[in-house]
Automatic annotation (TrEMBL), chain A:
GO terms classed as biological process: CUT catabolic process; exonucleolytic trimming to generate mature 3'-end of 5.8S rRNA from tricistronic rRNA transcript (SSU-rRNA, 5.8S rRNA, LSU-rRNA); nuclear polyadenylation-dependent rRNA catabolic process; poly(A)-dependent snoRNA 3'-end processing; regulation of gene expression; TRAMP-dependent tRNA surveillance pathway; U4 snRNA 3'-end processing
Keyword hit for rRNA processing: yes
GO terms of molecular function: RNA binding
Organism: Tigriopus californicus (Marine copepod)
Pfam families in UniProt: KH_6 (PF15985), RRP40_S1 (PF21262)
Region (Disordered): 1-27
Stated name of the protein: Exosome complex component RRP40
Gene Ontology cellular component terms for the protein in this record: cytoplasmic exosome (RNase complex); nuclear exosome (RNase complex); nucleolus
Domain (K Homology) ranges: 174-222
Main location: cytoplasm
Entry similarity comment: Belongs to the RRP40 family.
TrEMBL record, chain B:
One of the record's GO molecular function terms: RNA binding
Residue span(s) of domain Exoribonuclease phosphorolytic: 9-128
Taxonomic placement: Eukaryota, Metazoa, Ecdysozoa, Arthropoda, Crustacea
Name of the protein in its database record: Exoribonuclease phosphorolytic domain-containing protein
Localization, UniProt: Nucleus
UniProtKB/TrEMBL annotation, chain C:
Main location: cytoplasm
GO terms for cellular component: cytoplasmic exosome (RNase complex); nuclear exosome (RNase complex)
Family matches, as Pfam families: RNase_PH (PF01138), RNase_PH_C (PF03725)
Keywords assigned: Cytoplasm, Nucleus, RNA-binding
Domain Exoribonuclease phosphorolytic intervals: 32-173, 190-257
InterPro entries, sorted: ExoRNase_PH_dom1, ExoRNase_PH_dom2, ExoRNase_PH_dom2_sf, Exosome_comp_Rrp42_subfam, PNPase/RNase_PH_dom_sf, Ribosomal_Su5_D2-typ_SF, Rrp45
GO molecular function: mRNA 3'-UTR AU-rich region binding
Family that this chain belongs to: Belongs to the RNase PH family.
Upper lineage: Eukaryota, Metazoa, Ecdysozoa, Arthropoda, Crustacea
Cell division in keyword set: no
Protein name (database record): Exosome complex component RRP45
GO biological process, one term: TRAMP-dependent tRNA surveillance pathway
Length: 256, 221, 321
């Protein structure tokens, strides 16, 4: 059983935000001053004049820059949750697996309740005559153009300027693995040192999908597997532990 | 007649979250020796003929420890379906399914209550949006009028009537009840009160379980 | 529900890694995943986990043995019967999440047949000792094997350990005209255990070249393999079951070589069953009823676990009835 999962009650540091607390569905949120206008983020929902918690996790908030406008929101409140199942959100980059071709579109699995559609024309330089070179089973890195609870998600592999911007079919080897969604958010947060620390010693290419899937490619199979494992075990580590783990990993790969 | 010493004792509780790694949420839960494993997928794919435009389709699968699935299991599935539908915010996920699979491992009294509590814990582990939580306890009544809270099979041998109550966490309303035998109004009220107090302890257990799960996350920022 | 599809990239990476004798979960090719066995409170119940629980690479199987009285088969009037039922629970993998309960389809049939060949046709259970009255009444042993988690593969191997453990742990009632006796254990002659080996073709050389062999393949490895052999072997190196699947041409020396490996695994499984059984018996004799049962199977100091001892519930307004 990984050491990071053990309970460590003596190590509670003062770093946690003073008003952050663990909440469960149905809890009221008395922290929100009743007269303020606030934004409710994930895990919170409005019921009449009050907000209630809808998902278990850590309740956090952040003040927003003050504005002269009368109804400008003063703060944003949200719940940091641990989940594995992805729910599509517009604008997010995801990694999908092509399931089939249907007419002029690909049906792509991105882990949501429905497969997403990806049009042949949504690739850089694609025309009616020039079709993208993608087969069922291929992995694509794409962006969600349409994502709502009532509609089938739609993906594109080009940005607003028609350029690929890193998206498209991922080829040339590499490995795809899944992690819970909070690990993805942690990986992409500016305070997390994992990718930077590992990148200082092992050259690698990475594509991170907000749907919990990550693609990595290093020069050798050994490095790729080690990198994938390093990302998976960093789930419960803080920055110091991450630095120590990366150092150990680099040594192991160098053969010490 | 005095109430017996152990009459109002809730047996030890145990929960292990995330036991089945590939599911969206899972738990192994035990109430005394009654143990059940529950796995949840959701909001996930739904078959076209079952999809609902207003919200998620809830499906429950409860298997007995041995033998084929019978009417008892189907009856429990129906109770659980109602509970899950009332507590999750299904309207956030139309045309999806929430699939709950339960496998009891050991049946030592309070099986329906254990299945209900395991379902709630697994739904929390899955982190699907819910408006409230639910918890359940079984009570029995003996011939001489003694109310027993959460009895084991051995303790329930003298029972002439049994009742399982399910409460929700926000207003402590009754979400479901399953009665066997005869209950006078007075006995029913007493049983209901005992079950309510028992369920409060279970809600407290849920809160502690979630606090433990997020203890490292809380320390991080 | 659909499983997460295995992409071409993953298949290729898996094969590339195997060329270098590396497996995705860090194991070496002859290495098996760790096996854990727990007995339940009721006699004849066993829970087996293969691999580290909670990761994506673990399988979980639950087996329960029970007995009832029935008429013997006409062709075998003095023998009891053993019936094996394998079901995949809805939580086993996304592909089994169906309330209608197809109970597993092809995979369940394969595992059922493997267990039947391994346990029934090998005659490891003494069926004559299950006779009560010849031609009229015999004990019918029912073995339910529930696959709780199959997403990681290795189900047949785990199921055979769970089935054997359940049979070894089970005690059938003893009927005696004079008095009632304690339940009695089943008479098991030998312990055959299933062991799966997956074969992969080398990418560069032709199909005649020596193949790469992995013991205890994961689900992904099974999707990519060229074929597999499943052995049912007991610790005395007697082969009870041999099952080949896939597109494979194998030399007989290969079969014998891996049968030896399977036999070593069988020996360690039997040791495990015997040790756990001994511990369980000691606890029951010492009256430590709180330590028996599945709730204690997974006790560890993890943040995902919570335990609360028995507590008195306050009932201020409770009236007597």
């Amino acid at each position: 059983m990984p050491a990071e999962m053990e309970l460590d009650p003596d190590n509670v540091s003062a770093k946690s935000s003073p008003s952050a607390r663990v909440v469960i569905p149905g809890d009221p949120v008395p922290e929100i001053p009743p007269s303020d206008v606030v934004i409710l983020g994930p895990g919170l929902r409005r019921e009449g004049p009050h907000a209630i918690v809808t998902r278990p996790g850590v309740l956090r908030h952040k003040p927003l820059p003050s504005s002269a406008e009368k109804l400008a929101p003063k703060a944003i409140y949200w719940v940091d949750t641990h989940a594995k199942r992805y729910v599509a959100a517009r604008g997010e980059h995801v990694i999908g697996v092509i399931l089939a071709k249907a007419g002029d579109t690909f049906r792509v699995d991105i882990g949501t309740s429905e497969p997403a559609s990806l049009s042949f024309m949504a690739f850089e330089g694609a025309t009616k005559k020039n079709r993208p070179n993608a087969l069922p089973g291929d992995v694509v890195y794409a962006k969600l153009l349409v994502a709502s609870r009532d509609m089938e998600p739609e993906l594109v592999c080009v940005d607003a300027y028609g350029k690929k911007a890193g998206m498209g079919v991922l080829s040339g080897g590499g490995f795809v693995f899944t992690t819970p969604l909070h690990v993805i958010r942690k990986l992409l947060s500016p305070d997390c040192v994992l990718l930077k620390t590992l990148g200082d010693s092992i050259p690698f290419e990475i594509a991170v999908g907000m749907n919990g899937r990550i693609w990595v490619r290093c020069k050798s199979v050994k490095e790729t597997i080690s990198l994938a494992n390093a990302i998976s075990v960093a789930e419960y580590m803080n920055n110091d532990e991450i630095k120590a783990m990366s150092a150990k990993l680099v040594n192991a790969l160098a053969g010490f | 007649m005095p109430v017996k010493d152990k009459a109002l004792e809730l047996r030890p509780l145990f929960a292990q979250l995330g036991l089945l790694g590939h599911t969206d949420g899972s738990v192994m839960f035990s109430l005394g020796q009654t143990a059940v494993i529950c796995g949840v997928y959701g909001p996930a794919e739904v078959k076209p003929h079952k999809e609902r435009l207003e919200g998620a389709t809830v499906e429950i699968s409860l298997r007995p420890p041995s033998g084929p699935t019978g009417l008892q299991e189907k009856a429990k599935e129906a109770v659980l379906k109602g509970l899950v539908e009332s507590s999750i915010l299904g309207s956030l996920h139309p045309r999806t399914s929430v699939f709950v699979s339960l496998q009891p491992l050991d049946m030592d009294g309070g099986e329906l209550a254990a299945a209900v509590n395991a379902t709630c814990l697994a739904l929390m582990d899955c982190s699907i949006s819910m408006r409230c939580l639910f918890a359940s306890v079984e009570v029995t009544r003996t011939e001489d009028g003694i109310i027993l809270l959460d009895p084991s099979q051995k303790q329930a041998t003298k029972a002439v009537a049994k009742a399982t109550f399910v409460f929700e966490s926000v207003n402590q309303d009754v979400l479901a009840s399953h009665l066997e035998g005869r209950w006078s109004e007075k006995a029913f009220q007493a049983g209901l009160q005992a079950a309510l107090d028992g369920s409060k302890a279970i809600f407290q257990f849920y809160r502690e379980t979630v606090k433990r799960k997020f203890s490292k996350e809380l320390m991080m920022k | 529900m659909r499983d997460v599809p295995l992409s071409n990239l993953e298949r290729q990476f898996l094969l590339d890694a195997l060329e270098e004798s590396k497996r995705l979960d860090g194991r070496s090719t002859p290495q098996r995943r760790p096996l854990e066995l727990h007995f339940g409170r009721v006699e004849g119940t066993a829970l087996v986990s293969v691999g580290e629980t909670q990761s994506d690479h673990a399988s979980l199987v639950y087996a329960q043995a029970s007995a009832s009285i029935a008429e013997p088969a006409v062709s075998r009037p003095i023998e009891g019967m053993l019936n094996i039922f394998v079901t995949y629970c809805g939580s086993a993998a996304a592909r089994f999440a169906d309330a209608a309960g197809t109970a597993g389809g092809d995979e369940a049939v394969e595992v059922t047949r493997l267990l039947e060949r391994c346990l029934k046709e090998s005659r490891c259970l003494d069926l004559e000792s299950l006779c009560i009255v010849a031609e009229e009444k015999v004990w019918q042993i029912r073995l339910d094997v529930n696959i709780l988690s199959a997403a990681a593969g290795g189900v047949a191997d785990a199921a055979s350990v769970a089935a054997l453990a359940a049979l070894a742990h089970f005690k059938r009632p003893e009927i005696h005209p004079v008095s009632e006796r304690d339940p009695v254990a089943l008479a098991i002659h030998h312990y055959p255990v299933l062991s799966t080996f997956a074969f992969f073709n080398r990418q560069k050389s032709g199909s005649n070249a020596e193949k790469i062999v992995c013991v205890d393949p994961t689900w992904q490895e099974e999707q990519v393999m060229a074929g597999k052999i499943v052995f049912g072997v007991n610790p005395y190196r007697e082969i009870c079951t041999l099952h080949l699947a896939g597109q494979l041409l194998i030399d007989k020396s290969v079969v014998l070589r891996y049968a030896h490996v399977a036999s070593q695994h069988a020996k360690s499984v039997v040791d495990l069953i015997k040790n756990q059984l001994h511990e369980d018996t000691q606890k029951r004799l010492a009256g430590q009823t709180e330590e028996i049962g599945f709730a204690f199977a997974f006790k560890q100091n993890s943040i995902l676990q919570n335990v609360k001892p028995a507590e008195m519930v306050s009932t201020a307004n409770l009236e007597h009835v």
